[in-house]
Amino acid sequence: MNDILIITNYFPPETGAASNRIFHLAEGLQKHNFKVSVITPLPNYPKGKIFDGYRGTFKKTSIENNITIHRLWIYASNSKNRLKRLIAMLSYSFSLIWFFMWNKLPEKVIVQSPPLLVAFTCMFFIRNKKRKLILNVSDLWPIAGLELGAFKKNFSYKLLERIERFNYKKADLVLGQSEEILTHITSLFPKKETFLYRNFPDFEPPKLIEKPNETGKIKMVYAGLLGIAQGIYKLCTELDYNKVQFHIYGAGAEKDKIENLINTNSDFDIVYHGEIARSELHKALLQYDLTIIPLLNRIYGSVPSKIFEYGKLGFPMLYFGGGEGENIIETYNLGWVAPPTNYEALNLQLSKLNNADLSFEFKTQIQKTALLNFNFERQLKDLIEYL
């Protein structure tokens, strides 16, 4: 049996795309006769506080689903203050170094990036000729930070670029969740071995049931992080509610603002449902006509994993983020697109939709397309050939 270690910043019971992605990778490798262990912080995301049941400890090790999970101390924070965020990343890096000093590591290690500093800690301290380091890149930092307005092109940015290049250089294999990520990496290191590893979900697809539209309005839903990058608060203020009823699931930095907006604007046909477990969310989503996948800014290299998850649910999508994600929606006919931040174009697109566009037959076709083209098990088998 092959031993393999996964080092990540996010893992269940934390919620979100990053946590789900790494969990499915770990579980999939375990089912293919790998002895899998995971190093991750004590769960704290997205609230920025250590979860109940994990507080007051420096390290907690458990075996879950035949996977050994080492949860290490972190200074948990979701503060917008850059210094506090840096301290949080450094605290986990110090915990990793401590773990590396006292524990024998397997010869194959998968390192999640970003965060860049955490990935750098791993690539620097555990590199050796006998160990195969696999870097799993889900977003391009610091480029994404620059596009989001979190960074400026100064000394700090140049330092992060050097760290980014060091991480790619020391990796024996780089996994990228988009073609844009792999293009960027091979532009820096043309001979680097790469593998396109999409964020395909691993769950049993539901049986679709045809349901009538009772309200006459399109029941559109967003489910996910209520953060700055998604721009859900801005979306709430710009939607034309004559034809749309907007439902929201999730938590994050904009949660309080959205709740206050709903309470003070009765004309906005918005329903906030809070945060629920992913298994429950899948059942809840089946009652809606359409989902929206927004990004406030087009982020090079980013492809929201929701595309593949919703495809498997047979869920028509309105993509509002540009880039490679937009190309996937159009290539596989999964729904509609509108230019990011162009709310006039978004409302125009919504005004054109009718019941025929959101038919049971279209949903069935989306699910068939997803099952054929977004196959987690087939992709995992291909990846194992590289490991």
From TrEMBL:
Positions of the Glycosyltransferase subfamily 4-like N-terminal domain:
17-191
Keyword Transferase annotated? yes
Cite the entry's keywords alphabetically.
Membrane, Transferase, Transmembrane, Transmembrane helix
Q: Which Pfam families match?
A: Glyco_trans_1_4, Glyco_trans_4_4
* Keyword set includes Membrane: yes
Give the transmembrane region(s). Answer: 86-103
Taxonomically, the superkingdom here is: Bacteria
- InterPro entries, per the entry: Glyco_trans_4-like_N, Glycosyltransferase_grp1
Q: Which GO terms describe its molecular function?
A: hexosyltransferase activity
List, alphabetically, the PANTHER family matched. Answer: SULFOQUINOVOSYL TRANSFERASE SQD2 (PTHR45947)
Give the protein name, as stated in the record. Answer: Glycosyltransferase
Source organism of this protein record: Neotamlana nanhaiensis
